[in-house]
């Protein structure tokens, strides 16, 4: 079984972010042949066409190459004002520039966690629209919205204490594995490979 290389983007920069804890949970419950590396994007500047005209800033260029090399992307994000957090949207806007943008035909899983009861359920739909414009391949199911998330993670260790949440995230990581393998088979068939 081929190893699957996944990079993760957290939509919140806060060190104790609930969504960062979800990434850590995904790292714990993923299939054995999957690796998940969280990428740090806090050095990415605000998108500026004048700066882009001079070339990609080093942090953006490095993230583009790491995402391009990965088999898939996991995005764990809160919902801000019913939509995508501004910083995450800015990051995606930087990454989307150029004909060689790294999300082209890239499998992407989305999970969202919130202290509120809906678990950030509105943000994935806006995020999917953006990803589809970039010709990414978002995983449709299972959708994972973790409501009441503050009570589902130990505040001291950050570990998930809720069995149902662990199961949902494990199911999504297993589905992402199957989706990556299906996309790779499609690319192999398109290239005339067995």
| CATH architecture descriptor text | 3-Layer(aba) Sandwich
Query: Considering the protein shown, what is the CATH homologous superfamily?
Result: Flavodoxin domain
What proportion of the residues is helical, as a percent range?
40-55%
Which outline best applies? globular
Q: Gap between N and C termini, in Å?
A: 16 Å
Q: What percent strand?
A: 5-15%
Counted by DSSP, the helix tally is 6
Largest sheet: 6 strands, parallel
The CATH first-level class comes to Alpha Beta
Number of strands: 6
SSE string: EHEHHEHEHEEH
Oligomer class:
single chain
If you had to describe this structure to a student in words, what would you say it looks like?
- There is one protein chain.
- This protein has 194 residues and is α/β, with parallel strands linked by helices.
- The chain has one domain: Flavodoxin domain (Rossmann fold), CATH 3.40.50.
- Helices cover 41% and strands 15% of the residues.
- It is built from six helices and six strands; from the N terminus they run βαβααβαβαββα.
- Strands 1, 2, 3, 4, 5 and 6 form a six-stranded parallel sheet that branches.
- The radius of gyration is 16 Å and the shape is globular.
